[in-house]
Input
Amino acid sequence: MQINQFTANDTDLFLRHMKEAMAKVGEDLGIKITLGRCTYLTNNASLKITASVIAVDGTVESPERVAFRANALYWGMTADLLDKKFVHNGLVHTVAGYRTRSRTKPILTTAVGKTYIWPLDNFKRAVKAAGLLVTETTVLSRTEMDADYAGEAAYMRNGG
Output
């Protein structure tokens, strides 16, 4: 079947074919490929594709996982909270990542096959109540972060 113009049905067909093809490519290369948002007009379609490395232990190194490790200290947490489990409202949550573009609910957890998004303060309270370590540091201001980065960059330029 050839697609002459994109309609809702044709776009669904296109996505099904893409998912099958990307699953094979991911299997061949040993990576996880996820298809994101798809938009279409009459003559074209646009699709977001994300490829992530699969670690030795089988976890997929998604951008959210990487962002959690990179930003945990900034938010007064430790990077080792990633993949830790805690109980909240009777559900066992697993810390899954950090959404860099979200201002209000940046933290991701998974429980019972669903993904949950959390405001940072609520997440820190829940993790602390569960007995997992959350440091008592304050969030650095943008100026402090830039100064810290500049100092680190100068240190590395001088042979660190």
